[in-house]
Amino acid sequence: MNPMNIESISNSFINLHSYICLEFKHSGKIEEIPYRNELILIDSPIKGEHKDYQKNITKHSTYNLISGILFGLGLVAFIDEMVFHQLLSWHHFYDQSTTKIGLLSDGLFHAFSWFATVASLFMVADLRRRNSWWKKRWIGGVLLGIGLFNLYDGLIQHKVFKLHQIRYGVDLLPYDLVWNITAALITIIGIIIIRKTSHSQSK
Amino acid sequence: MPAHQHLDINSVSFILAIPFFLLIILYGIAVIKSNQSYRQWPWYYTACWISGNVLCLLAVAGPLAEASHQFFSVHMVAHLLLGMIGPLFMVLAKPVTLLLRSLPIKTARKVTTTLKKRPFHLLLNPLFTTVLNIGGLWLLYRTELFTLMHHSMLLYIVIHAHIFLAGYFFTASIIYIDKLHQGYSFQFRAIILILALAGHQILAKSFYGYPPSSVEKMEAEKGSMIMYYGGDVVDLVIIIIFCYQWFKVTKPKRYQPHSV
Description:
Chain B: The chain crosses the membrane at residues 12-32, 44-65, 77-100, 120-141, 153-176, 188-208, 228-247. Chain B: It is found in: Cell membrane. Chain B: It is a multi-pass membrane protein. Chain B: InterPro entries: Caa3_assmbl_CtaG-rel (IPR019108). The complex is a heterodimer of chains A (203) and B (260). Helix content of chain A is 74%, strand content 0%. Chain A has two domains: 3-41; 53-202. Chain A has seven helices and no strands. Chain B is an all-alpha fold and 260 residues long. Chain B has twelve helices and no strands. In chain B, helix 5 packs antiparallel against helix 6 (105-116) and helix 8 (126-142) packs parallel to helix 11. Chain B starts with 8 loop residues before the first helix and ends in an 11-residue tail after the last helix.
């Protein structure tokens, strides 16, 4: 569009606006007249945020990522508890070979993931009200969180700390392989999505 | 647990139950006083207060309390009621706000300044209340204290009062329902809340493998799971309230419609 044209339109609009404000002031309906410049500075009804969605998600890209990772950690801990502990009864609440550091690690991770599930969803709500939720990057974070937690669970908690095994009374090797390879694959897919979304950010 | 009891259950229950009855009555009087000079005190606060006190009463007197002397698993249910669920309901009832509203303005001001002084201020520090709460639990179950408790009336009363008070002040120092002071940051309280939950769950799970003194293995296993999953549920409620408060405080401002 012709820049001259825009200027004349906006000028006439400002004039009209000032006139209306003046009228209101005389009639005592409003006390303060907003500054003329404010009209041009404002581009979003939310203070501190852009009107442009693209600019917003760039600004909040780390926030989106962290929220996703936290949700991934929380989600997988919840699935682990529901599916493997309660429904399948493969995992045991406690195993005689559990080391003390295993109990410590389990307690800390459990508490953290419990908090993370709720906190990350409130973060999504916050991002949405700021018009800044970047779904793709967020899902990348979720996958990374799921993968990393399962790798930690499968390699460190099950094997090193001997918290409990995946299943009892069976040959463990195939279970351990499937568990950890799946976790590694999910982690890689998560990293790819995150890298892709970081790339489009610089464009 | 020993079958023969060295303490008189009825008198212990009686002594522990009196304060909760008194608290219900005092709250009722305060509501009437407050309604005389301010807007109607919402009924759901009163409902929260009564439910919280009744839940605590269930834990200290009546059939549940009697069975808790015999079975560790029932003891754990009572522990959840007295130390977590009851206090949570009571915190939600805004007792301090009601107290200040029911007093004359001068006295209310004095109370506020006293509450800001050292010993009281310490009770609003989440780190201190966590040590009081979780530290107290470790002390109770990981030393001989738990066995001694069932033989001494004084010890039994002191420990139960401690479980309730520590639970109340811990909850009040994490979620601010009564707005008394500037408060600690959300980050700090979040870290403390996670550590407190972890401390609780580690202790709970450890009962499965290492029962407290004089507790049978089967009972310890049941109690362990009740404490673990029960603690999870109550803490989930606390976490949701905590996050919701964060969500409200960080709400971004909007430009006034007339200036757009």
